[in-house]
Amino acid sequence: MKVAVIGAGTMGSGIAQVAAQAGHTTYLFDTRKEAVDKAVAGLTKTFDRLVEKGKLSAEEAKATLARIVPATDLKELAGCGLVIEAIIEDLGVKKRLVAELETILPHEAVLATNTSSLSVTAIAGACATPERVIGLHFFNPAPLLPLVEVVPGLATDGTLATRMATLMQAWGKAPVVCKDTPGFIVNRVARPFYGEAIRIFEEGIADMPTIDAAMKGVGFRMGPFELMDLIGNDINFTVTRTVWEAFFYDPRYKPSFTQQRQVESGRLGRKSGRGYYSYVDGASEPVIPVDPALAAAIVERILAMLINEAADALFWQVASAADIDRAMTKGVNYPKGLLAWADELGAKHWLNVLLVLQARYGEDRYRPSPLLLEATLKGNSLR
Ligand SMILES: NC(=O)c1ccc[n+]([C@@H]2O[C@H](COP(=O)([O-])OP(=O)(O)OC[C@H]3O[C@@H](n4cnc5c(N)ncnc54)[C@H](O)[C@@H]3O)[C@@H](O)[C@H]2O)c1
Predict the structure, then answer these.
(1) What is the Cα 348 distance to its own chain's centre?
(2) Atom 40 of ligand 1 has which residue's CA nearest to it?
């Protein structure tokens, strides 16, 4: 099967690499020819490095690179069985693209979107054949992070998610199937990692290096502030705001002024030389001793919110318990799945943490998921 990737930016070039390494002839198209040229040059360097490191033979690298075919016109994609779009995150532009693709590709070809925050159903709504449209949400960097969220829209053919999950497995990926709901699994469940850390900072309970150190102390590879600086505060703020709006302004996802001010001041993170931390003289890795009791309190509060979000995603049937846990470990490198983590102390413990926060702040933000209440009453696991 021939594959096409549309949009040759960060995600598109990574996805094209994955598809070509899986053996597909992979067309790469972008409205800006220079983006395709840049992607091909970047991929050439990547394959050179893989050869240097002994991960690929020189012949394999050459053959894989030869499978990546720059396209200059969408019509060249007519023979493809799967097209994955990774263009700008704009509903109108994506809708126009899939509607045009529909007129070029054979009826059985699958149209996949790598959207992070738009509704797959809304994108498919532009097509006369929405049954062949599906979300395939890769994570950055796509060649390295195994997770792919497979997201059928409302009108997607009932067998397509399984077929795409099987294909993603053949590509060496870890697929999870999830409902077309805001943020899918990862971008929804991970919100409190950032949002609650910011609240703890805003209240003056701890400074940023302390919060980061506390979370790293329980196995997270990066603290929330370091990670926001890496992702880019503009991108992280947009995701937070999009998820909050898409949930009809549910207070649980409310963005913070702290993050908004970072964006307004251009402190976007590593890419702008300054975010929550300064990167002007090289990256600063805050390593500081942390009072164990304070660290435990920080971890408990952030973890309670993360577990609550994972439990709520399960309650609302966004995905299976196994897939929710797999998504967080395979997509954002969490040290453990959150539902498995919850079992270590039991639902009652986490419910109590949330009830104390809810009583203290009187905010719906801390409302426990019905699943957490139910598991506590029945003495059940959340899984
Ligand atoms: N960057 C991430 O971490 C990440 C992770 C997962 C998903 N996504 C999603 O992947 C998509 C792409 O993100 P990115 O970070 O790679 O963006 P990017 O800006 O790096 O690349 C987008 C590319 O699309 C091209 N483009 C724009 N409109 C086009 C059109 N109509 N036809 C063809 N090409 C067009 C642009 O020229 C650009 O080269 C978005 O939907 C984003 O939400 C991004």
Answers:
(1) 29
(2) 89
pLDDT for 288: 78
pLDDT confidence bin for 283, thresholds 50/70/90? low
Catalytic, out of 85, 149, 196, 226 = 149
User: Token pair of 285, please?
Assistant: 């890795």
Fold of the CATH domain 3-177: Rossmann fold (3.40.50)
The CA 145 to ligand 1 mean position distance, Å, reads 17
Catalytic residue, candidates 24, 102, 114, 116: 116
User: Measuring from atom 2 of ligand 1, which residue has the nearest CA?
Assistant: 140
Whether 85 sits among the annotated catalytic residues: the reply is no
Specify the DSSP class assigned to residue 157. -
pLDDT digits over 67-107, tens only?
A: 999 999 999 999 999 999 999 999 999 999 999 999 999 99
Q: Is the pLDDT of residue 286 over 90?
A: no
pTM over 0.85: yes
| Residue burial 177-197, b: 16+ Cβ < 10 Å; e: rest | bbbbbbbbbbbbbbbbbbbbb
Tokens describing residue 99: 């509607």
Residue 368 to residues 126, 129, 309, 358: CA-CA distances in angstroms? Answer: 37, 40, 9, 9
Nearest to 85 by CA among 63, 100, 103: 100
CATH code reported for the domain at 188-378? 1.10.1040.50
Ligand 1 centroid – CA 172 distance (Å): 23
Nearest CA to ligand 1 atom 37: 32
Summarised one tens digit per residue, pLDDT across range 353-374 is 999 999 999 999 999 999 999 9
Annotation marks residue 59 as catalytic: no
| Residue boundaries of the structural domains of the chain | 3-177, 188-378
* Residue nearest (by alpha carbon) to ligand 1 atom 19: 9
